[in-house]
Structure formats: structure tokens, C-alpha cells
Amino acid sequence: MNVLRYAAFATTSDGGNPAGVVLDASGLDEVEMLAIAADIGYSESAFVRATGDSSYHVRYFSPLAEVPFCGHATIATAVALAERDGTGQLLFSTKIGAIPVVTHRDLDGHVIARLTSVTPHVQLVEGGDLSEALDALGWTTEELDPALPPRVAYAGAYHLVLAAATRGRLAALDYDFERLAALMRATDWTTLQLVWREADAVFHSRNPFPVGGVVEDPATGAAAAAFGAYLVDLGAVTPPARLTVHQGADMGRPGRLYVDLAAGRPQVDVSGPAVPIKSPK
To answer: What pTM, to 2 d.p., does this model score?
Structure first.
């Protein structure tokens, strides 16, 4: 089995979010895919089956379970396909629907992939769920940014969005792994999108991912898409707009995600590069 490894949303292999990519998974069942994802050990791996010219069926697995959608593994897969077949337009069929992706090379020669989310939506958080999440994180309501109230946002997966009032609160992440995992399984949240707003269109993010078997996701494309929809829903940004989301720095794996919000279109674009990671021997 030829397993590729890419770091998404970074231009060096020690940054961004690592993803496993299997470009020909046609002979694998879900038990085998899960076993491969667990062996790779990254937060998610993508398993690809060609269905036509430039169209593919893609499934995503964490080390513990299949997930409906994964943004950084989508970016990694698109870059891997572009490096094999050339840049251009792709269409990924996933459990949450069709995901269009476009790839191109930038002036530095890096392949950049841009995915377009499914139609997002944003909803209020149940009071008990919010209290439990804050308790599991060790956060208080006084440490939240009142301008960016808690919500649950969806753009392929559900994410609880919590905005810290200070960069220091975001940096000091130390949570109850099992308690938060239990809450997230009960609410169907894939990650928590913890953010701090540096400027109008610049944010820092951290994403606890205990339901996937990892403490933190270094760069989360699905959460970035959901976050873009959240900001539009609140009126905190006005499309057209481009957001920059910095993630992974507190883990020693800095990455950068670009979130594009178009006027008159609910779907969110998320883009970034991906670079190969040398496979272990």
C-alpha cells in the first residue's frame, strides 16, 4: 500500500497539519482504512478512489473512527493529485456531499489547493453543553470575547466556536481529555474551534480533537470554513472578505489558512499549500 504523507497549510514539512493520503484505495474496506489511519497516526488520513476524469470518491479516517469530512486532508489529497497529474479542477465526492477543489502553483512553485465547502449553517449552543465545555477546558465566561459569542458552526462537520478575550487565554490550553471527548461524542462536535481575534481579518486558532484520539489538530480546514460562516452569520465580517487564520504555532507546527467569503454565496472557500513529508523507513 502506497501511503503518502503531506503537511497541509504549510510550506515546510515540520509545519501545518500532517495527513496521510492513499491515492488508490479501491481495494480497501473501511476496516482496512481505519487500521491504516491508526498505523499512520495522524489526526486524519484520506482514502481516494477515482470515479472519472478529475473526479474522486474520498473517505476520511482518524486513528479512532471515520469522519464525514476533513479539510486539511482534502488540501493534502488535492496537492498530491496535482503533483501526479497536473494542476486544475477536481471534484471530490464525500459523505457530506460534493466538494469542488482547484489547484495551481504559486510564484514560489508551491501547489496551492482551494476547497469550497458545502452550504454551512450556524446555531446556538445549549446552555448545559456550553457550561460543560468551559468546565472541561478550565475556562470561565469572563475569559470569552463578548463580541464573538459561542455558537456551533457547520461546514461539513460541527464545531463549537469559542472566542478567547486574550491571546494568553488561547495559548494556555490544558483540558480534561476524557471529559471533553465524552461531551463532543454526545453533541457530534468534531473539534472545538478556539480563536482569538488579532485584527479585523486576522485570527489565531486552536482545535482540541479528543474524539479523534489526538489532543489537538494543528491546522483544521473544516473548522476554518465553519468559522468563516460563523463570522458572516454574526455580522462580524462583511463579504467579500479574506480571513487569515494562524494555527499550530502553540504546538510548534505553525500553519496558515486562508478563508474567502464571497458576497451573495453562503459556501466558504479555504485554501493553502501542502508539502510532502518524508515517509518513515
So the answer is: 0.96
- Spell out the per-residue pLDDT of the chain, length 281, in tens: 799 999 999 999 999 999 999 999 999 999 999 999 999 999 999 999 999 999 999 999 999 999 999 999 999 999 999 999 999 999 999 999 999 999 999 999 999 999 999 999 999 999 999 999 999 999 999 999 999 999 999 999 999 999 999 999 999 999 999 999 999 999 999 999 999 999 999 999 999 999 988 999 999 999 999 999 999 999 999 999 999 999 999 999 999 999 999 999 999 999 999 999 987 75
107 shares its domain with 178:
no
> Residue 112's domain spans which residues?
4-117
Residue 99 near residue 247, CB atoms below 8 Å = no
For residue 158, CA distances in Å to 154, 193, 214, 228, 263 come to 5, 10, 17, 13, 23
Closest to 6 in 3D by CA, of 216, 218, 192, 226: 218
Say whether both 160 and 263 belong to one domain.
Answer: yes
270, 115 contact by CB (below 8 A): yes
Going by the DSSP 8-state scheme, the letter that residue 279 receives in this structure is P
Do 57 and 91 fall within a single domain? yes
CATH number at residue 103: 3.10.310.10
Q: How many domains does the chain have?
A: 2
